[in-house]
Protein backbone atom coordinates (compact mmCIF):
# COMPACT_ATOMS: atom_id res chain seq x y z
CA UNK A 1 0.00 0.00 0.00
CA UNK A 2 1.12 3.54 -0.68
CA UNK A 3 2.60 5.65 2.08
CA UNK A 4 0.88 8.79 3.32
CA UNK A 5 1.31 10.88 6.52
CA UNK A 6 -2.28 10.01 7.53
CA UNK A 7 -1.18 6.42 8.01
CA UNK A 8 0.70 7.45 11.16
CA UNK A 9 -2.60 8.66 12.68
CA UNK A 10 -5.37 6.57 14.21
CA UNK A 11 -8.79 7.00 15.75
CA UNK A 12 -8.31 6.03 19.40
CA UNK A 13 -11.68 6.88 20.93
CA UNK A 14 -15.28 7.30 19.81
CA UNK A 15 -18.57 8.05 21.52
CA UNK A 16 -22.20 8.72 20.72
CA UNK A 17 -24.26 10.00 23.65
CA UNK A 18 -27.82 8.83 23.96
CA UNK A 19 -29.62 10.07 20.88
CA UNK A 20 -33.28 11.10 21.00
CA UNK A 21 -35.86 13.16 19.16
CA UNK A 22 -35.62 15.58 22.13
CA UNK A 23 -32.99 15.44 24.92
CA UNK A 24 -34.66 17.24 27.83
CA UNK A 25 -32.36 19.36 29.98
CA UNK A 26 -29.54 19.58 27.44
CA UNK A 27 -28.19 22.20 25.08
CA UNK A 28 -25.56 21.81 22.40
CA UNK A 29 -22.65 22.49 24.74
CA UNK A 30 -23.74 20.16 27.53
CA UNK A 31 -24.35 17.22 25.23
CA UNK A 32 -21.06 17.86 23.38
CA UNK A 33 -19.33 17.72 26.78
CA UNK A 34 -20.82 14.29 27.45
CA UNK A 35 -19.74 13.11 24.03
CA UNK A 36 -16.19 14.41 24.56
CA UNK A 37 -15.81 12.73 27.94
CA UNK A 38 -17.18 9.52 26.49
CA UNK A 39 -14.70 9.44 23.62
CA UNK A 40 -11.75 10.28 25.90
CA UNK A 41 -12.74 7.54 28.35
CA UNK A 42 -13.22 5.10 25.48
CA UNK A 43 -9.62 5.74 24.45
CA UNK A 44 -8.40 5.23 28.02
CA UNK A 45 -7.24 8.85 28.24
CA UNK A 46 -8.03 11.85 30.46
CA UNK A 47 -8.92 15.41 29.40
CA UNK A 48 -5.34 16.54 30.16
CA UNK A 49 -4.10 14.22 27.42
CA UNK A 50 -5.89 16.36 24.82
CA UNK A 51 -3.70 19.02 23.21
CA UNK A 52 -5.85 19.89 20.21
CA UNK A 53 -9.59 20.39 19.60
CA UNK A 54 -11.88 20.82 16.62
CA UNK A 55 -15.49 21.92 16.92
CA UNK A 56 -17.77 24.82 17.79
CA UNK A 57 -18.90 26.04 21.18
CA UNK A 58 -18.95 22.59 22.72
CA UNK A 59 -15.29 21.97 21.97
CA UNK A 60 -14.10 25.38 23.18
CA UNK A 61 -16.25 25.07 26.32
CA UNK A 62 -14.51 21.76 26.91
CA UNK A 63 -11.08 23.41 26.75
CA UNK A 64 -12.09 26.12 29.21
CA UNK A 65 -14.03 24.00 31.70
CA UNK A 66 -11.28 21.40 31.94
CA UNK A 67 -8.55 24.06 31.99
CA UNK A 68 -6.53 22.21 29.36
CA UNK A 69 -5.28 25.28 27.49
CA UNK A 70 -3.09 26.03 25.72
CA UNK A 71 -4.30 23.68 22.99
CA UNK A 72 -4.22 23.79 19.21
CA UNK A 73 -7.66 24.63 17.85
CA UNK A 74 -9.16 24.54 14.36
CA UNK A 75 -12.13 26.63 13.25
CA UNK A 76 -13.50 23.70 11.24
CA UNK A 77 -17.05 22.62 11.90
CA UNK A 78 -17.34 18.90 12.25
CA UNK A 79 -17.80 15.78 10.19
CA UNK A 80 -15.25 14.19 7.91
CA UNK A 81 -13.40 17.49 7.23
CA UNK A 82 -12.72 17.66 10.98
CA UNK A 83 -11.38 14.10 10.99
CA UNK A 84 -9.12 14.89 8.02
CA UNK A 85 -7.94 18.11 9.63
CA UNK A 86 -7.22 16.34 12.90
CA UNK A 87 -5.17 13.77 10.99
CA UNK A 88 -3.34 16.55 9.15
CA UNK A 89 -2.64 18.48 12.35
CA UNK A 90 -1.27 15.41 14.09
CA UNK A 91 0.81 14.41 11.06
CA UNK A 92 2.17 17.97 10.84
CA UNK A 93 2.97 18.12 14.55
CA UNK A 94 0.51 20.83 15.66
CA UNK A 95 -0.93 18.47 18.23
CA UNK A 96 -0.48 14.94 19.46
CA UNK A 97 -4.01 14.01 20.52
CA UNK A 98 -7.00 15.83 19.03
CA UNK A 99 -10.58 15.85 20.30
CA UNK A 100 -13.45 16.42 17.86
CA UNK A 101 -16.73 17.06 19.67
CA UNK A 102 -20.14 18.34 18.61
CA UNK A 103 -23.61 18.32 20.07
CA UNK A 104 -27.06 19.55 19.25
CA UNK A 105 -30.05 19.95 21.55
CA UNK A 106 -32.81 22.47 22.06
CA UNK A 107 -32.51 24.12 18.64
CA UNK A 108 -35.52 22.64 16.80
CA UNK A 109 -38.58 23.77 18.73
CA UNK A 110 -40.89 25.21 16.06
CA UNK A 111 -42.13 21.89 14.72
CA UNK A 112 -44.71 23.24 12.26
CA UNK A 113 -41.77 24.28 10.08
CA UNK A 114 -38.91 22.13 8.85
CA UNK A 115 -35.76 22.24 11.02
CA UNK A 116 -34.05 25.65 10.98
CA UNK A 117 -30.74 24.37 9.58
CA UNK A 118 -32.61 22.87 6.60
CA UNK A 119 -33.94 26.20 5.31
CA UNK A 120 -31.33 28.94 4.98
CA UNK A 121 -32.97 32.22 4.02
CA UNK A 122 -31.09 32.99 0.80
CA UNK A 123 -32.81 35.48 -1.52
CA UNK A 124 -33.00 33.16 -4.55
CA UNK A 125 -34.65 30.22 -2.79
CA UNK A 126 -36.54 31.68 0.17
CA UNK A 127 -39.67 32.68 -1.73
CA UNK A 128 -40.01 29.27 -3.35
CA UNK A 129 -40.43 27.15 -0.24
CA UNK A 130 -37.13 25.34 -0.46
CA UNK A 131 -35.67 23.10 2.25
CA UNK A 132 -33.32 20.13 2.14
CA UNK A 133 -35.87 17.53 1.00
CA UNK A 134 -36.84 19.69 -1.99
CA UNK A 135 -33.19 20.45 -2.82
CA UNK A 136 -32.23 16.77 -2.88
CA UNK A 137 -35.46 15.87 -4.70
CA UNK A 138 -34.42 18.09 -7.63
CA UNK A 139 -31.20 16.07 -7.92
CA UNK A 140 -32.98 12.72 -7.61
CA UNK A 141 -35.66 13.61 -10.16
CA UNK A 142 -33.07 14.57 -12.75
CA UNK A 143 -31.29 11.22 -12.29
CA UNK A 144 -34.60 9.34 -12.55
CA UNK A 145 -35.39 11.21 -15.77
CA UNK A 146 -31.98 10.67 -17.40
CA UNK A 147 -31.32 7.08 -16.29
CA UNK A 148 -34.76 5.66 -15.54
CA UNK A 149 -33.98 5.16 -11.85
CA UNK A 150 -37.15 3.99 -10.08
CA UNK A 151 -38.93 4.85 -6.85
CA UNK A 152 -38.60 1.15 -5.99
CA UNK A 153 -34.82 1.42 -5.96
CA UNK A 154 -35.04 4.45 -3.67
CA UNK A 155 -37.44 2.56 -1.41
CA UNK A 156 -35.11 -0.45 -1.28
CA UNK A 157 -32.33 1.79 0.05
CA UNK A 158 -34.62 3.31 2.68
CA UNK A 159 -35.96 -0.08 3.79
CA UNK A 160 -32.43 -1.53 4.06
CA UNK A 161 -31.09 1.31 6.20
CA UNK A 162 -34.23 1.51 8.35
CA UNK A 163 -34.01 -2.22 8.97
CA UNK A 164 -30.43 -1.75 10.17
CA UNK A 165 -31.81 0.74 12.69
CA UNK A 166 -34.76 -1.48 13.55
CA UNK A 167 -32.42 -4.06 15.12
CA UNK A 168 -30.02 -1.52 16.73
CA UNK A 169 -31.00 -0.88 20.39
CA UNK A 170 -29.13 2.45 20.29
CA UNK A 171 -31.13 3.73 17.30
CA UNK A 172 -33.89 6.23 17.96
CA UNK A 173 -36.21 4.18 15.72
CA UNK A 174 -35.18 0.82 17.23
CA UNK A 175 -38.00 -1.66 16.83
CA UNK A 176 -40.01 0.47 14.42
CA UNK A 177 -39.74 -2.07 11.58
CA UNK A 178 -39.09 -4.24 9.82
CA UNK A 179 -39.80 -2.37 6.60
CA UNK A 180 -40.40 -3.58 3.07
CA UNK A 181 -39.83 -1.31 0.08
CA UNK A 182 -43.61 -1.16 -0.25
CA UNK A 183 -43.86 0.28 3.28
CA UNK A 184 -41.62 3.13 2.16
CA UNK A 185 -43.72 3.74 -0.96
CA UNK A 186 -46.91 3.69 1.13
CA UNK A 187 -45.72 6.46 3.46
CA UNK A 188 -46.98 9.97 2.75
CA UNK A 189 -45.24 12.08 0.13
CA UNK A 190 -42.96 14.87 1.41
CA UNK A 191 -41.19 16.17 -1.71
CA UNK A 192 -41.71 13.94 -4.75
CA UNK A 193 -39.99 11.47 -5.26
CA UNK A 194 -39.30 11.34 -1.51
CA UNK A 195 -41.88 9.77 0.77
CA UNK A 196 -41.66 10.37 4.50
CA UNK A 197 -39.62 7.18 4.96
CA UNK A 198 -37.16 8.15 2.19
CA UNK A 199 -36.11 11.09 4.39
CA UNK A 200 -33.83 11.37 7.40
CA UNK A 201 -35.28 12.28 10.77
CA UNK A 202 -34.37 15.22 13.00
CA UNK A 203 -33.03 14.54 16.47
CA UNK A 204 -30.64 15.57 19.23
CA UNK A 205 -27.42 14.12 20.54
CA UNK A 206 -23.66 14.46 20.89
CA UNK A 207 -20.82 12.76 19.02
CA UNK A 208 -17.07 12.81 19.54
CA UNK A 209 -13.84 11.22 18.36
CA UNK A 210 -10.26 11.26 19.62
CA UNK A 211 -7.41 10.91 17.13
CA UNK A 212 -3.77 10.48 18.06
CA UNK A 213 -0.45 9.26 16.68
CA UNK A 214 -0.64 5.64 15.65
CA UNK A 215 2.32 4.68 17.86
CA UNK A 216 0.48 6.12 20.88
CA UNK A 217 -2.85 4.61 19.87
CA UNK A 218 -1.40 1.11 19.85
CA UNK A 219 -0.87 1.31 23.65
CA UNK A 220 -4.35 2.69 24.48
CA UNK A 221 -7.56 0.99 25.48
CA UNK A 222 -9.02 0.23 22.05
CA UNK A 223 -7.73 -1.28 18.82
CA UNK A 224 -6.51 1.64 16.67
CA UNK A 225 -8.55 2.48 13.58
CA UNK A 226 -6.29 3.84 10.86
CA UNK A 227 -6.97 6.81 8.60
CA UNK A 228 -6.20 5.43 5.13
CA UNK A 229 -7.22 8.50 3.12
CA UNK A 230 -9.91 11.04 2.43
CA UNK A 231 -10.84 14.31 0.81
CA UNK A 232 -13.72 16.71 0.17
CA UNK A 233 -15.48 18.08 -2.93
CA UNK A 234 -17.34 21.39 -2.94
CA UNK A 235 -19.27 23.30 -5.62
CA UNK A 236 -20.27 26.39 -3.63
CA UNK A 237 -22.56 27.37 -0.78
CA UNK A 238 -25.35 24.94 0.06
CA UNK A 239 -28.99 25.91 -0.50
CA UNK A 240 -28.43 29.29 -2.18
CA UNK A 241 -28.30 28.44 -5.88
CA UNK A 242 -30.29 26.00 -8.04
CA UNK A 243 -29.18 22.45 -7.00
CA UNK A 244 -28.47 21.38 -10.55
CA UNK A 245 -27.15 17.89 -11.32
CA UNK A 246 -25.17 19.37 -14.25
CA UNK A 247 -23.57 22.28 -12.37
CA UNK A 248 -19.94 23.04 -13.19
CA UNK A 249 -17.44 20.18 -13.58
CA UNK A 250 -14.69 22.40 -15.05
CA UNK A 251 -15.92 21.38 -18.47
CA UNK A 252 -15.79 17.66 -17.64
CA UNK A 253 -19.25 16.00 -17.61
CA UNK A 254 -17.85 13.28 -15.33
CA UNK A 255 -17.22 15.89 -12.63
CA UNK A 256 -20.50 17.85 -12.55
CA UNK A 257 -22.26 18.35 -9.21
CA UNK A 258 -24.29 15.18 -9.76
CA UNK A 259 -21.05 13.26 -9.27
CA UNK A 260 -19.84 15.33 -6.33
CA UNK A 261 -17.52 13.17 -4.25
CA UNK A 262 -15.99 11.43 -7.27
CA UNK A 263 -12.78 13.47 -7.26
CA UNK A 264 -12.56 13.22 -3.46
CA UNK A 265 -13.01 9.44 -3.58
CA UNK A 266 -10.28 9.11 -6.20
CA UNK A 267 -7.94 11.11 -3.98
CA UNK A 268 -8.83 9.01 -0.93
CA UNK A 269 -8.25 5.73 -2.75
CA UNK A 270 -4.99 7.00 -4.26
CA UNK A 271 -3.62 7.82 -0.79
CA UNK A 272 -3.59 4.12 0.09
CA UNK A 273 -3.60 2.34 -3.26
CA UNK A 274 -7.04 0.83 -2.73
CA UNK A 275 -10.06 0.57 -5.03
CA UNK A 276 -13.82 0.45 -4.42
CA UNK A 277 -13.68 -3.35 -4.64
CA UNK A 278 -11.41 -3.34 -1.55
CA UNK A 279 -14.17 -1.75 0.58
CA UNK A 280 -15.97 -4.04 3.05
CA UNK A 281 -18.43 -1.57 4.62
CA UNK A 282 -20.07 1.47 3.03
CA UNK A 283 -20.93 3.88 5.83
CA UNK A 284 -22.56 6.34 3.43
CA UNK A 285 -24.36 9.49 4.50
CA UNK A 286 -28.10 9.02 4.03
CA UNK A 287 -30.01 12.32 4.16
CA UNK A 288 -32.37 10.90 1.53
CA UNK A 289 -32.62 7.44 -0.01
CA UNK A 290 -31.51 8.47 -3.50
CA UNK A 291 -28.25 9.87 -2.20
CA UNK A 292 -26.97 6.32 -1.52
CA UNK A 293 -27.59 5.33 -5.15
CA UNK A 294 -25.78 8.45 -6.34
CA UNK A 295 -22.77 7.79 -4.12
CA UNK A 296 -22.28 4.24 -5.41
CA UNK A 297 -22.04 5.77 -8.90
CA UNK A 298 -19.95 8.79 -7.93
CA UNK A 299 -17.44 6.77 -5.91
CA UNK A 300 -16.92 4.24 -8.70
CA UNK A 301 -18.68 1.15 -7.31
CA UNK A 302 -20.82 1.01 -10.46
CA UNK A 303 -21.28 2.96 -13.67
CA UNK A 304 -23.24 6.18 -14.12
CA UNK A 305 -26.94 5.39 -14.10
CA UNK A 306 -26.39 1.85 -12.79
CA UNK A 307 -26.96 2.66 -9.11
CA UNK A 308 -30.68 1.96 -9.20
CA UNK A 309 -30.10 -1.66 -10.21
CA UNK A 310 -26.97 -1.94 -8.04
CA UNK A 311 -28.90 -1.48 -4.76
CA UNK A 312 -31.40 -4.25 -5.53
CA UNK A 313 -30.92 -7.96 -4.83
CA UNK A 314 -29.38 -7.60 -1.38
CA UNK A 315 -26.04 -6.08 -2.43
CA UNK A 316 -26.30 -3.31 0.18
CA UNK A 317 -27.57 -5.47 3.06
CA UNK A 318 -25.28 -6.88 5.72
CA UNK A 319 -24.35 -10.25 4.22
CA UNK A 320 -24.26 -8.66 0.76
CA UNK A 321 -21.14 -7.43 -1.01
CA UNK A 322 -21.42 -3.75 0.00
CA UNK A 323 -23.37 -3.33 3.26
CA UNK A 324 -24.50 0.26 3.71
CA UNK A 325 -25.03 2.51 6.75
CA UNK A 326 -25.17 -0.32 9.23
CA UNK A 327 -26.44 1.46 12.36
CA UNK A 328 -29.55 2.86 10.70
CA UNK A 329 -27.99 6.18 9.74
CA UNK A 330 -29.79 9.49 9.62
CA UNK A 331 -33.02 7.71 8.81
CA UNK A 332 -33.22 5.51 11.89
CA UNK A 333 -30.18 5.86 14.19
CA UNK A 334 -30.06 9.65 14.64
CA UNK A 335 -29.69 12.94 12.79
CA UNK A 336 -28.54 15.26 15.55
CA UNK A 337 -28.64 18.90 14.49
CA UNK A 338 -26.44 20.34 11.78
CA UNK A 339 -22.98 19.33 13.07
CA UNK A 340 -22.96 16.38 15.47
CA UNK A 341 -24.63 14.03 12.99
CA UNK A 342 -21.84 14.63 10.47
CA UNK A 343 -19.56 12.62 12.80
CA UNK A 344 -21.78 9.55 12.89
CA UNK A 345 -20.48 7.85 9.73
CA UNK A 346 -16.81 8.00 10.88
CA UNK A 347 -17.85 6.74 14.33
CA UNK A 348 -19.78 3.81 12.86
CA UNK A 349 -16.94 3.10 10.43
CA UNK A 350 -14.57 2.92 13.41
CA UNK A 351 -16.96 0.60 15.29
CA UNK A 352 -17.02 -1.70 12.26
CA UNK A 353 -13.19 -1.71 12.04
CA UNK A 354 -13.00 -2.55 15.76
CA UNK A 355 -15.43 -5.40 15.16
CA UNK A 356 -17.56 -4.36 18.11
CA UNK A 357 -20.97 -3.62 16.59
CA UNK A 358 -23.60 -5.51 18.62
CA UNK A 359 -25.84 -5.56 15.56
CA UNK A 360 -25.04 -5.70 11.85
CA UNK A 361 -21.29 -6.24 12.38
CA UNK A 362 -19.75 -7.05 9.00
CA UNK A 363 -17.64 -10.16 9.64
CA UNK A 364 -13.96 -9.68 8.83
CA UNK A 365 -14.42 -6.05 7.76
CA UNK A 366 -11.03 -4.37 7.27
CA UNK A 367 -11.83 -1.29 5.14
CA UNK A 368 -14.71 1.17 5.60
CA UNK A 369 -15.66 4.04 3.29
CA UNK A 370 -17.48 6.84 5.15
CA UNK A 371 -19.12 9.87 3.57
CA UNK A 372 -20.95 13.10 4.32
CA UNK A 373 -22.95 15.72 2.45
CA UNK A 374 -24.68 15.19 -0.87
CA UNK A 375 -25.41 16.65 -4.29
CA UNK A 376 -28.43 18.60 -3.02
CA UNK A 377 -26.03 20.55 -0.80
CA UNK A 378 -23.20 20.84 -3.40
CA UNK A 379 -20.60 19.00 -1.32
CA UNK A 380 -19.48 15.49 -0.45
CA UNK A 381 -16.76 14.39 1.97
CA UNK A 382 -15.15 10.95 1.95
CA UNK A 383 -12.99 9.09 4.48
CA UNK A 384 -11.38 5.66 4.22
CA UNK A 385 -10.77 3.85 7.51
CA UNK A 386 -8.83 0.64 8.00
CA UNK A 387 -8.34 -2.06 10.60
CA UNK A 388 -4.66 -2.39 9.72
CA UNK A 389 -1.99 0.23 9.16
CA UNK A 390 -1.20 0.37 5.44
CA UNK B 1 -55.56 17.42 -8.86
CA UNK B 2 -54.70 20.88 -7.61
CA UNK B 3 -54.38 23.94 -9.85
CA UNK B 4 -51.04 25.52 -8.95
CA UNK B 5 -51.25 29.23 -8.04
CA UNK B 6 -48.72 31.70 -6.60
CA UNK B 7 -48.35 31.66 -2.83
CA UNK B 8 -50.60 34.19 -1.11
CA UNK B 9 -49.60 33.72 2.53
CA UNK B 10 -47.00 35.53 4.60
CA UNK B 11 -44.09 33.65 3.02
CA UNK B 12 -40.53 34.76 3.82
CA UNK B 13 -39.22 37.62 1.70
CA UNK B 14 -35.99 37.76 -0.27
CA UNK B 15 -33.48 40.36 0.94
CA UNK B 16 -31.59 41.77 -2.06
CA UNK B 17 -27.92 42.71 -1.88
CA UNK B 18 -26.12 45.50 -3.74
CA UNK B 19 -25.08 42.86 -6.27
CA UNK B 20 -28.56 41.45 -6.84
CA UNK B 21 -30.64 44.66 -6.62
CA UNK B 22 -30.79 45.15 -10.42
CA UNK B 23 -32.29 41.64 -10.75
CA UNK B 24 -35.06 42.48 -8.28
CA UNK B 25 -35.60 45.95 -9.81
CA UNK B 26 -36.10 44.24 -13.18
CA UNK B 27 -38.71 41.90 -11.77
CA UNK B 28 -40.63 44.86 -10.32
CA UNK B 29 -40.76 46.32 -13.88
CA UNK B 30 -41.85 43.00 -15.36
CA UNK B 31 -38.42 42.08 -16.73
CA UNK B 32 -36.45 38.91 -16.00
CA UNK B 33 -32.77 39.87 -16.09
CA UNK B 34 -29.60 37.83 -16.25
CA UNK B 35 -25.95 38.82 -16.66
CA UNK B 36 -24.41 38.61 -20.15
CA UNK B 37 -20.62 38.51 -20.55
CA UNK B 38 -19.11 41.10 -22.90
CA UNK B 39 -16.16 38.82 -23.55
CA UNK B 40 -17.62 35.33 -24.17
CA UNK B 41 -21.35 36.16 -24.41
CA UNK B 42 -22.12 33.51 -21.77
CA UNK B 43 -25.07 33.93 -19.38
CA UNK B 44 -24.65 34.02 -15.60
CA UNK B 45 -27.15 33.56 -12.75
CA UNK B 46 -27.34 33.92 -9.75
CA UNK B 47 -25.95 37.50 -9.86
CA UNK B 48 -22.16 37.41 -9.75
CA UNK B 49 -19.05 39.58 -9.99
CA UNK B 50 -17.45 37.39 -12.66
CA UNK B 51 -18.64 35.42 -15.67
CA UNK B 52 -19.45 31.79 -14.81
CA UNK B 53 -17.93 30.65 -18.10
CA UNK B 54 -14.73 32.66 -18.63
CA UNK B 55 -14.18 34.60 -15.40
CA UNK B 56 -14.27 38.01 -17.08
CA UNK B 57 -15.54 40.92 -14.99
CA UNK B 58 -17.32 42.59 -17.92
CA UNK B 59 -20.92 41.57 -17.14
CA UNK B 60 -23.96 43.50 -18.37
CA UNK B 61 -27.55 43.06 -17.27
CA UNK B 62 -29.68 41.78 -20.14
CA UNK B 63 -33.38 40.91 -20.46
CA UNK B 64 -34.34 37.25 -20.86
CA UNK B 65 -37.17 36.11 -23.11
CA UNK B 66 -38.47 34.45 -19.95
CA UNK B 67 -39.01 31.28 -21.97
CA UNK B 68 -37.48 27.96 -21.15
CA UNK B 69 -38.14 24.40 -20.14
CA UNK B 70 -38.31 22.43 -16.91
CA UNK B 71 -34.92 20.82 -16.11
CA UNK B 72 -36.01 19.17 -12.85
CA UNK B 73 -38.95 19.36 -10.48
CA UNK B 74 -40.41 18.25 -7.17
CA UNK B 75 -43.91 18.41 -5.72
CA UNK B 76 -43.83 19.52 -2.08
CA UNK B 77 -46.53 18.23 0.28
CA UNK B 78 -44.84 19.06 3.59
CA UNK B 79 -44.33 22.84 3.49
CA UNK B 80 -41.11 24.56 4.49
CA UNK B 81 -43.21 26.62 6.94
CA UNK B 82 -46.98 26.76 7.45
CA UNK B 83 -47.02 30.01 5.44
CA UNK B 84 -46.77 27.93 2.24
CA UNK B 85 -49.89 26.30 0.78
CA UNK B 86 -49.32 22.76 -0.53
CA UNK B 87 -48.85 21.30 -2.97
CA UNK B 88 -46.33 23.62 -4.54
CA UNK B 89 -43.88 22.69 -7.28
CA UNK B 90 -40.26 23.89 -7.11
CA UNK B 91 -38.60 23.67 -10.52
CA UNK B 92 -35.22 24.36 -12.04
CA UNK B 93 -35.80 26.12 -15.37
CA UNK B 94 -33.42 26.01 -18.36
CA UNK B 95 -33.80 29.51 -19.87
CA UNK B 96 -33.40 30.04 -23.63
CA UNK B 97 -30.23 32.09 -23.17
CA UNK B 98 -28.43 29.17 -21.53
CA UNK B 99 -28.82 29.71 -17.78
CA UNK B 100 -30.74 28.06 -14.99
CA UNK B 101 -32.89 29.43 -12.17
CA UNK B 102 -34.99 28.10 -9.35
CA UNK B 103 -38.71 28.96 -9.29
CA UNK B 104 -42.18 27.50 -8.70
CA UNK B 105 -44.56 26.24 -11.40
CA UNK B 106 -48.07 27.76 -11.61
CA UNK B 107 -51.01 27.70 -14.00
CA UNK B 108 -51.43 23.95 -14.40
CA UNK B 109 -52.31 20.84 -12.45
CA UNK B 110 -49.61 19.85 -9.96
CA UNK B 111 -49.21 16.45 -11.58
CA UNK B 112 -48.81 17.91 -15.08
CA UNK B 113 -45.22 18.91 -14.37
CA UNK B 114 -42.54 17.02 -16.32
CA UNK B 115 -38.93 17.40 -17.43
CA UNK B 116 -38.80 19.24 -20.75
CA UNK B 117 -42.12 21.03 -20.15
CA UNK B 118 -42.13 24.36 -22.05
CA UNK B 119 -42.65 27.26 -19.63
CA UNK B 120 -42.56 31.06 -19.54
CA UNK B 121 -42.11 33.55 -16.73
CA UNK B 122 -45.01 35.19 -14.89
CA UNK B 123 -44.53 38.04 -12.39
CA UNK B 124 -46.26 38.21 -9.01
CA UNK B 125 -45.64 41.12 -6.60
CA UNK B 126 -44.98 39.97 -3.05
CA UNK B 127 -44.43 43.45 -1.54
CA UNK B 128 -44.00 46.97 -2.89
CA UNK B 129 -40.32 46.19 -3.49
CA UNK B 130 -40.23 42.48 -4.25
CA UNK B 131 -41.79 40.67 -7.22
CA UNK B 132 -41.31 36.91 -7.55
CA UNK B 133 -40.77 35.25 -10.94
CA UNK B 134 -42.99 32.17 -11.29
CA UNK B 135 -43.27 30.03 -14.44
CA UNK B 136 -46.38 28.72 -16.26
CA UNK B 137 -46.77 26.30 -19.17
CA UNK B 138 -46.62 27.89 -22.65
Describe the structure.
The complex is a heterodimer of chains A (390) and B (138). Chain A has a domain at 5-104: Thiolase/Chalcone synthase (Peroxisomal Thiolase, Chain A, domain 1, 3-Layer(aba) Sandwich). Chain A is built from 12 helices and 11 strands. In chain A, strands 3-2-4-7-1-8-11-10-9 form a 9-stranded mixed beta sheet, sandwiched between helices. Chain A has helices spanning 28-43, 57-65, 80-92, 132-147, 151-166, 181-186, 214-217, 262-272, 289-298, 307-310, 329-332, 344-354, and strands spanning 9-16, 52-54, 72-74, 97-104, 189-191, 194-195, 205-213, 225-234, 281-283, 367-374, 379-386. With 390 residues, chain A is α/β, with parallel strands linked by helices. Chain B has a single domain (21-137), classed as OB fold (Dihydrolipoamide Acetyltransferase, E2P), CATH 2.40.50. The two termini of chain B are 19 Å apart. Chain B is 6% helix and 33% strand. Chain B is built from 1 helix and 8 strands. In chain B, a hairpin with a 5-residue loop joins strand 7 (118-125) and strand 8 (131-137). Chain B has one helix at residues 21-28, and strands at 33-37, 43-44, 59-63, 67-73, 90-95, 100-104, 118-125, 131-137. Chain B is mainly beta. Chains A and B meet through helix 4 and strand 5 of A and strand 4 and strand 6 of B.
Class per helix and strand makeup of chain B: mainly beta
Q: Give a short account of the largest sheet of chain A.
A: 9 strands, mixed
Q: What's the pLDDT, averaged over the residues of chain A?
A: 95
- Nearest-angstrom radius of gyration of chain A? 19 Å
Percent of residues in β-strands of chain B: 25-35%
Structural class label of chain A: alpha/beta
Q: Uncertain spans of chain B, ≥5 residues at pLDDT below 50?
A: none
- Name the strands of the widest sheet of chain A in spatial order: 3-2-4-7-1-8-11-10-9
Largest inter-chain contact set: A-B, 36 and 35 residues
Give the number of helices of chain B: 1
Low-confidence stretches of chain A: none
CATH architecture of the domain at 5-104 in chain A: 3-Layer(aba) Sandwich
CATH topology of chain B: OB fold (Dihydrolipoamide Acetyltransferase, E2P)
